[in-house]
Design goal:
Blueprint: H1 2-70, H2 76-98, H3 102-107, H4 110-150, H5 154-191
Length: 192
């Protein structure tokens, strides 16, 4: 009788082991599927982040080429400063986005991806803190240059420049929020 109980217990133990193995395999497959879904979502968000970077770079390069042609009656110092400012902005944006290659991120472990997103977010925030006062100073200088060139009343020019700066600010803010929100979403997805 005791021998039969031992055999039954061994059979039950074997059944439990096989069920545990089956459960382990299913959990591994589920985690693989979850990681694949997470990486696909991450790829889409990284693509959006990179698109915003390339748009910023394209605008800066366009300004470098277009500005001297359209505003060649402004002072040489102002034109050179504008070109340098736009070129530095394009290079800084490229450097900030350089580490966010979606093909490379798809093969890296999730911790590394989260750290890269945190770094990108921090650099983006710092670039905004640095660029905002420079853009405001540039707007004031631009207003002064156009007043000197045209003799237009300063109230009119200040209003026109403020209106243009406001439109540019809201476009830049929308692009900035899109990048920061996507970084936050990727970081949150990885940390959960």
């Amino acid at each position: 009788m005791e021998n039969e109980n031992t055999i039954t217990e061994q059979q039950e133990l074997e059944t439990l082991r096989s069920q545990m193995d089956l459960l382990r395999k299913k959990l591994e497959q589920e985690s693989i599927v979850n990681e694949k879904l997470m990486r696909e979502t991450m790829k889409s968000r990284v693509s959006t982040i990179n698109r915003q970077g390339w748009i910023s770079i394209a605008v800066a390069i366009f300004m470098v080429l277009w500005f001297p042609l359209c505003f060649n009656t402004l002072s040489t110092a102002f034109i050179i400063t504008t070109i340098v400012f736009m070129a530095v902005d394009a290079i800084a944006t490229w450097i900030i986005h350089k580490q966010v290659d979606e093909r490379q991120l798809m093969s890296e472990d999730m911790r590394t991806v989260a750290n890269k997103m945190k770094t990108l977010k921090k650099r983006y925030q710092w670039s905004t803190v640095i660029e905002l006062p420079l853009v405001l100073a540039w707007c004031v200088w631009f207003c002064y240059e156009v007043i000197q060139m045209t003799g237009a009343p300063w109230q009119f020019m200040a209003g026109a420049v403020a209106f243009g700066a406001l439109i540019g600010f809201f476009i830049a803010l929308k692009m900035y929020r899109k990048v920061i929100d996507n970084c936050d979403a990727i970081i949150q997805q990885i940390e959960e």
